[in-house]
Amino acid sequence: MGRKAVGERLSAAELLALVVDDASFEPWFDDLLPVDPLGFTDTMPYVDRLARAAERAGTTESVIVGRARVRGHDLVVIAGEFAFLAGTMSVSSAERVVRAFERATDLALPVLGLPVSGGTRMQEGTPAFVQMVKTAAAARQLREAGLPYLAYLRHPTTGGVLGSWASLAHLTFAEPRALIGLTGPRVIELLEGQPLPEGIQVAEHLAGHGIIDDVVAAEDLAERVDRALAVLRGAIQASGFNEPPLALPDDATIDPWEAVGRSRRTDRPGIRELLAVCAQQVTPLRGDGAGNDDPGCTTALARVCGVPVVLVGHDRPSGQRGSRLGAAGFRKARRAMALAAELELPLVTIIDTAGARSTSADEEHGVAREIAGCLATMSGLEVPTLSLLLGEGTGGGALAFLPADRVVAA
Question: Largest CB tally within 10 Å, which of 20, 101, 188, 195?
Answer without folding.
Answer: 101
